[in-house]
Amino acid sequence: xxxxxxxxxxxxxxxxxxxxxxxxxxxxxxxxxxxxxxxxxxxxxxxxxxxxxxxxxxxxxxxxxxxxxxxxxxxxxxxxxxxxxxxxxxxxxxxxxxxxxxxxxxxxxxxxxxxxxxxxxxxxxxxxxxxxxxxxxxxxxxxxxxxxxxxxxxxxxxxxxxxxxxxxxxxxxxxxxxxxxxxxxxxxxxxxxxxxxxxxxxxxxxxxxxxxxxxxxxxxxxxxxxxxxxxxxxxxxxxxxxxxxxxxxxxxxxxxxxxxxxxxxxxxxxxxxxxxxxxxxxxxxxxxxxxxxxxxxxxxxxxxxx
Length: 306
Known about the structure:
Elements: E1 2-10, E2 17-20, E3 45-47, E4 52-58, E5 64-71, E6 76-83, E7 92-96, E8 102-105, E9 111-117, E10 122-129, E11 137-145, E12 153-154, E13 159-165, E14 171-177, E15 182-189, E16 198-204, E17 219-221, E18 225-231, E19 236-244, E20 251-259, E21 267-268, E22 276-279, E23 284-292
Parallel strand pairs: 3-5, 12-14, 21-23
Antiparallel strand pairs: 1-23, 2-22, 4-11, 5-10, 6-9, 6-11, 7-8, 7-10, 13-20, 14-19, 15-18, 15-20, 16-17, 16-19
């Protein structure tokens, strides 16, 4: 029996270098920044669109800010509110149906996020508040349609996507996968100045997350580089939402995606050969080789310049 193996070579989150290996194809994509939106004062409602960020603040204790959006029954939506500095501000995001009944809400913390399916068509409200203390401060609200994502970059397998994430913001990526496929996702710092603790979550078009081999939701966070293998159990279009775990971090990042079942933009290697290339900060190089059962192989990945 002969089996094809894969090696991921990852650059450190803060440095780049020349290496012995072939660099997988990478593509820089600039995600269109959301236009500045108005911030409601007190209980005055403001509009927010899918794929948009709104910068606002809790100015006085007990303040509740309301935002409205239009939704269609059956759509899955994601909402996230995050403080933008390391203040004691605690936040909760809650979605209300057109009849003002509560639909869903996130946990109360430095950021609050939730995904839910709309069960009626109409105008919905998002309430942002600090329900547990008198702390005040700035925050950013983000809304996304998981059924038909807006302002999200279509990611190709085997490509690296560099970008910059502002405090409280979310970077969104989309990909399609088939049931039975295994997907590798990585979101990492790409500069020493980055204060990011990278985190990502993956949702299907119905708002349901795929799972890992251990049955956990396919999400991950880390102090420098978050990565995970995810099992796909339903043919679907998926959305990856990437952000800072501690809410207020910011900086340069690289997002990488690969289909472990049907690899793309990978280098097929031959035994006994040296492969050289350049790996950018936070990027991934992908290689494959074929070996027979019981064969022993040696792999070396090294920088090739001081």
